[in-house]
Amino acid sequence: MDKKNRHKSEGHRQRLRDRFLAGGLEGFHDYEVIELLLTLFTPRKDCKDEAKALLKRFKTLQQVFEAPVSELCEIKGIGPKNVFGLKLIPAVSKRFLEKKIVRSEALNNAEALFHFLYHSMSAMDRECFKVLFLDAKNRVMAVETMFEGTLTASSVYPREVVRAALNHKAAAVIFSHNHPSGDPEPSHADMEITRRLVMACMTLGITVHEHLVVGDGCYYSFADHGHIARMRRQFDQLD
To answer: What is residue 184's predicted lDDT score, i.e. its pLDDT?
Structure first.
């Protein structure tokens, strides 16, 4: 790169950084977010073309972040070094959001809970089933991804969930899984596995507070729609 182009590139990179420091990501296009991350580990070179190529290939910012390194490196100008920023920053964000809810009262911090679940699950191309384990004061003690499925379904085993809850000495649990289609409306299978999970947990005195289905920018709450309370009543009638 000649001195003139290098100077132009460095000036553009600095303007991106100055914009971010002045106002965060407000007003940034998705490709500019990717470009900014690429510049962290790409010395002097303009990364705009590579950022646009990544977004064209993977369609959304979240899918760029979730794409395998091998597929990211198929884009011209992308290599193991400058892809590092694309993997590091989202990983740090997920860790931050998880730490923010651990030891917090999950039932009184629904917004933080949804943000954590959304950012950790929404871009996945497979269904993923997470369990949040809570203590007697409804504080989150641990979060585990217990099952991963296909594009349309996840095999969830109540006995494994109960065993994990007992290992954590959990008094209560919150379930969550994602729908890669983006539509959070629960399927018949979702309803049935939730019923089985509620029954299995209540048998051992473990309270199920919620099952959230995460979609594209939205979610479905089993508790808000009255399903959890109805399932508890069914269990009480059997007792």
So the answer is: 92
Distance of CA 53 to the CA centre of its chain: 24
- Give the fold, CATH level 3, of 104-238: Cytidine Deaminase; domain 2 (3.40.140)
Summarize the confidence of residues 151-166 as an average pLDDT.
85
Summarised one tens digit per residue, pLDDT across range 60-118 is 888 898 888 999 999 999 988 888 888 888 788 777 777 767 766 766 666 677 777 88
Amino acid at 51: A
Residue 214's region, left for phi above 0, alpha for psi from -120 to 50, else beta, is beta
Task: Concatenate the DSSP letters of all residues of the chain into one string.
Answer: --HHHHHHHHHHHHHHHHHHHHHTTTT--HHHHHHHHHHTTS-S---HHHHHHHHHHH-SHHHHHHS-HHHHTTSTT--TTTTHHHHHHHHHHHHHHHHHHBTSBGGG-HHHHHHHHHHHHTT-SS-EEEEEEE-TT-BEEEEEEEEE--SS-----HHHHHHHHHHTT-SEEEEEEE-TTS--PPPHHHHHHHHHHHHHHHHTTPEEEEEEEE-SS-EEETTTTTHHHHHHHHHHHH-
In the chain, residues under CATH classification 3.40.140.10 are: 104-238
- Crossing angle, helix 84-101 and helix 30-39, to 10 degrees? 110
The pLDDT-based confidence of 8 (bands split at 50, 70, 90) is low
> Is pTM, for the whole model, over 0.90?
no
Check pLDDT > 90 for residue 129.
yes
